[in-house]
Amino acid sequence: MVPVIAVIASFFIARSAWYVHHQRNSYLAIGDYPFTLTNMNCEVVIFGDSSALTGVSPRVIETATSLRTCNIAQPSTTLSLAGNFALDFFLENNPRPRFLIFQFSASDFAARSGDGNLNEEGALQLLRHKFDLQTSWLFVRHPLQALEFSEFILRTALLERNWTTTGYASSWAQVQTSHGLFTPPGAPLNDCVAHLELRAPDPSWIRQLRREYSQQGTRVLIYAAPQPDCDSSYDYYAANLAQLADGGLPRFSVHMFTGETHFTREGADLNSRRIAEGLASILREDPSR
Questions:
Q1: pTM for this one?
Q2: Which pLDDT does position 288 carry in this prediction?
Q3: What is the DSSP letter of 224?
Q4: How far apart are CA 176 and CA 14, in angstroms?
């Protein structure tokens, strides 16, 4: 009975506020942010993968456009399991935005199938915010992965916990102050340590995103995250995304990145200004937007 009790206990621990306060993963610490926003009049909503989470600054967009902006983007691992759950939750609990901006890294312009992989970020989001029959069945269908997830929760809660909660407090304060932008720790890159995999974009998936969310007066824009100027996949993606991404595929100095698809604050500000310019252009052409 001990393993069974341990697994059940880990699920209760994962759902507690105590757990997210004391584990060490910054992305898990801020994972609840979209679910704390209710009745927020966000005229611009940012969603997408970690390139949007770390690379689109609501403050910069607000300054340039005077439009209240919220960033509720999620890591790609979360999206592969939970999909657009955080976005759908936000739209159900807040007024519809005037603009919904998706940003993905170039290799994420196709739906990522997690194949039921209970990755830590995605499984935790579902367990904390969508613990229904569908989520329960997901865990039941993958018992070995459920055990691995349980071990992860117990280990990070009991053995590798953050005894001071300083990391949680710092990460949470950052996303609240910035309206959702998170700048991961780490120095700017000096060179490309890796290159994006060549993964064919899926035009039908992009069209479906536009159709599904272009409702009730919301205009959908889909951006490709800028790539480091040393990334060898640039030519491939620039050609394949030319007709899919609003604004094409920019190139930034590698010093604007802390990782392959993660931005420094300077890089986020630069990227946000180009998105703000696109919004300003739309507003000039059609002030009723």
A1: 0.92
A2: 63
A3: E
A4: 22
CA atoms within a 13 Å half-sphere pointing along the CA-CB vector of 105: 28
Range of the domain at 26: 2-285
pLDDT band at 207 (very low <50, low <70, confident <90, very high): very high
Region of 114 please: left (phi>0), alpha (psi -120 to 50) or beta: alpha
d(CA 109, CA 6): 39
pLDDT of residue 158: 87
The per-residue pLDDT for range 140-164, each reduced to its tens digit, is 999 899 999 999 999 999 888 887 7
Backbone angles phi, psi at 286, to 5 degrees: -140, 85
C-alpha to C-alpha distances, 107 to 56, 61, 133, 233, 256, nearest whole angstrom: 18, 25, 32, 9, 19
If DSSP codes are grouped into helix, strand and coil, which group holds residue 49?
A: coil
**Taking 60 as the threshold, does the pLDDT of residue 114 lie above it?**
no
Alpha helices in 130-192 (DSSP H): 133-141, 143-154, 166-178
Where on the phi/psi map is residue 71: left (φ > 0), alpha (ψ -120 to 50), or beta?
beta
Residue 157 CA to residue 4 CA, distance in Å, equals 18
- The Cα–Cα gap between 286 and 155 comes to 54
pLDDT bracket for residue 116 (50, 70, 90) = low
With vertex at residue 116, the alpha carbon angle to CA 160 and CA 92, rounded to the nearest 5 degrees, is 90
Dihedral sign of CA atoms 227, 273, 56, 84 in order: negative
Q: Give the residue from 179, 176, 172, 194 showing the smallest Cα distance to 262.
A: 194
Domain count of the fold of the chain = 1
Give the count of beta carbons closer than 10 Å to the beta carbon of residue 223: 26
